[in-house]
Amino acid sequence: MKIKKNIALSDSGFVFDPATGDSFTTNPIGLEIIKMLKDGKTLSEIKSAILKKYLTDEATFEKDNYDFMNMLSKHRLTVDNEKEKN
Predict the structure, then answer these.
(1) pTM listed for this prediction
(2) Are 9 and 31 in contact (CB under 8 A)?
(3) I need a labelling partner for 82 at 20 to 30 A (CA). Which of 3, 28, 39, 41 fits?
(4) Per-residue pLDDT tens digits for 60-77
(5) In this structure, which CATH number among 1.10.3210, 1.10.10, 3.40.50, 1.20.1530 belongs to the domain 2-85?
(6) DSSP strands (E only) in the chain
């Protein structure tokens, strides 16, 4: 899963989709995850980076990340890696 290329991010956590005009805000960890997705990082790489940087356990990360990814998908901010190749 990747963030769409046209999604704009600010350092304060403001997320803007120019295709729809929708905007969202996210917390600093969500912003880091979105930036890593934009950079093409895998879920494994993101998980490793978050677990190293923050005091959280793997189970908590898995649950929170699952919820966050679903939210990104629900708001159509992501694209499936396979669809992007076509």
Answers:
(1) 0.85
(2) yes
(3) 28
(4) 999 999 999 999 999 999
(5) 1.10.10
(6) 2-3, 8-9, 14-17, 22-25, 78-79
